[in-house]
Specification:
four-stranded mixed beta sheet; single chain; 487 residues; Rossmann fold; mainly alpha
Length: 487
């Protein structure tokens, strides 16, 4: 019966995701269009894009390959748009089953495990950021938590092989694999400090994983490291954008993005295990929570990515809390009301996880390009030229417009990203015509894609008919051609 319920929860989660994703034929994230271009290139040549003539008007592209090749396989027998909509959401929904397996192993309670699986499917930050974006984290996060499950069952030989294969795939999927290594090393440190027994097999596997991930990532990203040096840690993010992400962060927002019930109960379990009961398996989860928290504290990981990981970890810790709470209820007169209490907790999960997931996901869907924007980009494809836009429209211009952009969200291998960010901001805000046109000439801009720019900055002060001709217009988008050059 519990298997049927688990499959039903998986189908509910997947249906919920697909219902939201198919409310637009487009995607909500700039990176989704870069992924589509990678898949198209693999289908045509069998290779990833190594030198992108459109991004930043020409730059090297260095990416971990597995996710793109994985999606390319499905594109052999499915339309590309359906691959982007369906496959990532199927991968993300697998967290339901993985969370269930981890919790049932830790608690031996199927009811709590099913609740944890359901909650894992509706972590607001994770669902909203991955439902319509072809996010690499739809594979990375389920894979990391499957690796945790394999580590818990490492004495079973088949899970040992699954652990090794999964580590190899993770290393070829994302540099975020370093987060796993940091967490596992924290785990070994905790066991050592608390004088808990260290399994030789665990130590060997963690050290093996560390060296494997370091070696693979070095082979993939050695060119990036030589280009950026230590700033590679921050992925060459523009300072202003990075600062904006963290300035917008607050505790109340984190509660809402992660899920209030999971957040509060997870923090309690961390406190309980650090200062009272010492449980090695819970220490494994706490190691992930602490390492992710430290990376966020020192701004070594993007805020939304860190919150995704924290959200999933706290779901598993929430299950630990529920187990302790259930045991406590058995000792009280309230034990006969356990089913009612379970129902109340389930309703609270819907209110604090499912509903925020829906509202945030709907908000993210508003970032999808409109039909007017797509029509403008189709015109641009017929009349290509270097085009200036907002950051989150850069890959869209490269994908639909097949035109060179000034910038997009692929910041690696760009030497002067902060200067580009400041120059683009000046183009849209300066009141001096000579400054604006001088910067447009500096980047050899032919067109300005004037859609979301209007909403963000309003009118551009120095625009004049003499220097800027409207070559395309519709209800929501204008395309201006830059006519003037400074001598």
């Amino acid at each position: 019966m519990r298997r049927i319920i688990l499959i039903l929860i998986f189908l509910i989660t997947l249906s919920f995701r697909l219902f939201i994703a198919f409310q637009s034929s487009e995607f909500s994230d700039d990176n989704a269009y870069f992924t589509l271009r990678q898949i198209e290139n693999i289908k045509e040549s069998g290779k990833l894009i190594s030198y992108d003539e459109l991004s930043y008007s020409g730059k090297q592209q260095i990416n971990s390959p597995f996710f793109y090749y994985f999606l390319s396989f499905f594109s052999l027998f499915m339309p590309l748009n359906l691959v982007g909509k369906i496959i990532p959401n199927v991968l993300a929904s697998l967290l339901v089953m993985i969370a269930y397996l981890i919790v049932v192993h830790l608690t031996k309670n199927s009811k709590i495990s099913l609740m944890a699986g359901f909650t894992a499917g509706f972590v607001p930050i994770y669902l909203s950021r991955t439902v319509n974006s072809i996010s690499i984290y739809t594979l990375v996060i389920p894979l990391i938590f499957f690796i945790i499950y394999c580590l818990l069952k490492i004495d079973d030989k088949k899970f040992l092989y699954c652990f090794i294969v999964s580590i190899f795939i993770l290393a070829l999927t994302s540099a975020s694999s370093f987060l796993l290594i940091i967490a596992l090393l924290f785990y070994l440190l905790f066991l050592r400090l608390e004088r808990l027994k260290l399994s030789r097999k665990e130590v060997e596997l963690i050290l093996f994983s560390t060296f494997l991930i370091i070696i693979i990532n070095f082979l993939v990203y050695k060119g990036v490291f030589l280009f950026h040096g230590i700033s590679l840690i921050w992925q060459n993010f523009p300072e202003e954008i990075m600062a904006k992400y963290f300035l917008e962060f607050n505790l109340l927002g984190a509660l809402y993005l992660i899920g209030t019930i999971s957040f509060v109960s997870g923090i309690y379990i961390i406190y309980y295990n650090l200062f009272k009961k010492k449980d090695r398996f819970t220490f494994l989860l706490i190691s992930f929570a602490i390492s992710t928290g430290l990376l966020l504290w020192f701004r070594l990981i993007q805020l939304r990515i860190g919150l995704m990981f924290l959200g999933m970890i706290l779901v598993l810790l929430f299950a630990q809390f529920m187990q302790k709470f259930w045991i406590y209820l058995d000792r009280t007169k309230f034990s006969k009301y356990k089913n009612y209490i379970f129902f109340v907790v389930f309703v609270l999960i819907i209110l604090t996880s499912v509903w925020p997931s829906y509202t945030y996901a709907k908000k993210e869907m508003n970032n999808s390009p409109s039909k007017d924007e797509i029509n403008a980009l189709i015109w641009l494809k017929k009349n290509p030229g270097k085009t200036l836009s907002l950051l989150d429209e850069g890959s869209l211009i490269a994908y639909y417009g097949r035109s060179k952009n000034v910038w997009d969200s692929n910041f690696l291998m760009i030497e002067n990203i902060n200067q580009i960010e400041n120059d683009v901001k000046d183009i849209f805000t300066t009141k001096l015509e000579t400054t604006g046109i001088g910067l447009l000439n500096k980047y050899d801009v032919k067109y300005i894609f004037y859609g979301k720019v209007r909403k963000k900055y309003g009118g551009i002060p120095y625009f004049s008919k003499r220097c800027f001709e409207v070559v395309y217009e519709n209800k929501n988008v204008d395309i201006y051609e830059v006519k003037c050059r400074l001598k």
